[in-house]
Design a protein that fits this description.
Blueprint: E1 3-11, H1 16-24, E2 29-34, E3 41-47, H2 50-61, E4 67-74
Antiparallel strand pairs: 1-3, 1-4, 2-3
Length: 81
């Protein structure tokens, strides 16, 4: 079963390009979107377990220089048009 997480990120503006490049290198991240409003970036991530989600954050997302904070939401169900 695949779990999808939406990660809202606040980024140091001078680090925006670097953060986007680093997020795009992570295989579990399928989309990176630039936003207006309270958050700078939205990343969509797909994993097979919460343990895998933890590992991706610990080893790949949290160490990214320029990342101020993240707010992660798990998708319970989705509908496509």
């Amino acid at each position: 079963m695949t779990l999808t997480a939406l990660i809202f990120c606040k980024i140091e503006h001078k680090a925006m390009k670097n953060v986007i490049e680093k997020l795009r290198e992570i295989p579990q991240i399928t989309k990176v979107l630039s936003l207006t409003g309270d958050y700078d970036i939205l990343a969509e991530l797909n994993v097979d377990s919460t343990d895998n989600l933890y590992d991706v954050f610990e080893t790949k997302i949290d160490p990214i220089e320029g990342m101020i904070s993240t707010n992660t939401h798990m998708v319970m169900k989705s509908w496509e048009k």
